[in-house]
Hints:
Blueprint: E1 4-10, H1 14-22, H2 26-33, E2 37-44, E3 50-56, H3 58-70, E4 75-79, H4 81-85, H5 91-95, H6 104-121, H7 124-134, H8 141-149
Antiparallel strand pairs: 1-3, 1-4, 2-3
Amino acid sequence: MKTCVYRVEFSKSSVDLIDEYERLSEHEKEWISQLDAESFFDYDTQNDNYICFVITTPIEIKKYLEILTNNLIENKCEDLSKQILSSKINLYEDLKSIITPLNSIKWSFFIEDLDEWILSNLDIDIVLDRISEVGMASLNKTEKQFLKNYHL
């Protein structure tokens, strides 16, 4: 996998993180602004935690997390790639309750990019395992699209 899907959760809201961002060096700010991500979706939880889902490379996320750690910005980062590919996590369902008219466009772009990412990272073994688990009729649309396009 060249890129992965990460979930980064902060212990502060996005508004509170603005203060943290201001304390970064100019070099760190510049690097963060140039973070090479294929796509992202972010929101604040009801508990005032900022959460960001990002599709990027392991090298990019490592650099980003280094900056956060060096500046004592609390976060938890999790690679969701394998769980998403095996349908153990369904971001469409898990996040639909937080979609509002204000973030729906950003969400639709992210979901489109996520579907593309899934399609390019699925392999026949993953899809066959899913068929064994849930049957052909219960595959999601991306898995069905993969099978439709699959050639030996």
